[in-house]
Amino acid sequence: MTSDARNELDGIVAVPATPFTDDNRVDVESLRRYVRNTLAHGVVGFLAPAVAGEVEMLSESERELVVKTLLEETAGKVPVIGGATDPDPVARLRHARRFIELGCEGVLAYVRYEDDESYSRAIRDLGALNPGFLMIQDLDLGRAPVPVELVVRLHREVPCFTWNKVETSDRCRKISAIIEATGGTMRIGTAGPDVIELLDRGVHSYLITYTVDVYQRIWSHYRAGRRDEAVAVYRRLLPLLAFMATHQKIQWRFTKALLHAAGIFATTRVRIAAPELDAAERRLIDELCRYSTELSASIRTSAPV
User: Fold this and answer.
1) DSSP letters along 242-281, please?
2) Lower CB density within 10 Å: C or N end of the chain?
């Protein structure tokens, strides 16, 4: 497979949560289990560390440990995208440079939008490191939305800026606008509860942490022209999606509970300042963990696609 083909990443990209041991160290063995499990389900790449991986709670050495573990376990089977996001632009470039040195084929970074000039400078600085590809994360955290026109211009001016991870509140329409304005040359990755609409709008990759096997089945159905079957599987995810959407402050606890129930993570420990679960949340999460386990089992035993 050529480098260009690998970097197209058409499919499910796994974004691992960072597992921790009971004594609060990065749990490398659980992370290795995660990689092996998701590779078996056909993911086309990995992205870490990211928000789902509590990146702000990791030291620089822990960030590197996560990336090294992914690179070792994937052994070149699929691309690894190093998550270089940091509010300090010097640290951001240092992370990106190190991940490229380690062997990441791509680099992701979020750059806060303040104005066109500073945003453009930050993207050019990242591009000057010459990663295999640069994926820029677009979130609703800047002074104003990143203009589509600016994204298009920088895509043309910075050769490696070929991916945009759009996660804004208007991501669906913004995705369509970027694809139309670039003639489809800008590749789009995203996440969110609306995977069918995102596929309808032409996304190239879907980035997810949990129930990767279910999302892979949705993706396979859709790409094979079986949209109705994709919708049917998607609707079976709705109980999980509804809980996640209404309990965003404890999403890390929920995600790790799902991975623990699947036998992948040894603990459900989080570092981020997520509220402790109350009795109602614990009961619902226990029920949803059982539901998720049963859903994955039914996917495994259904006819392959």
Assistant:
1) HHHHH-GGGHHHHHHHHHHHTTS-S-----S-PPPP-HHH
2) N
Euclidean distance between CA atoms 270 and 272, whole angstroms: 6
Show Cβ contacts of residue 269 under 8 Å, excluding neighbours closer than 6 positions. Answer: 19, 20, 21, 22, 24, 256
CB 64 within 8 A of CB 28: no
Cβ neighbours of residue 24 closer than 8 Å, sequence gap 6 or more: 269, 271
pLDDT tens string for the chain (305 positions)?
445 656 689 999 999 999 999 999 999 999 999 999 999 999 999 999 999 999 999 999 999 999 999 999 999 999 999 999 999 999 999 999 999 999 999 999 999 999 999 999 999 999 999 999 999 999 999 889 999 999 999 999 999 999 999 999 999 999 999 999 999 999 999 998 999 999 999 999 999 999 999 999 999 999 999 999 999 999 999 999 999 999 999 999 999 999 999 999 999 999 999 999 999 999 999 999 999 999 999 998 886 55
Query: Residue 1, exposed/middle/buried by CB under 10 A (0-12, 13-18, 19+)?
Result: exposed
User: Which residue has 């440990």 as its token pair?
Assistant: 65
Prior bond to 19 cis, omega within 30?
no
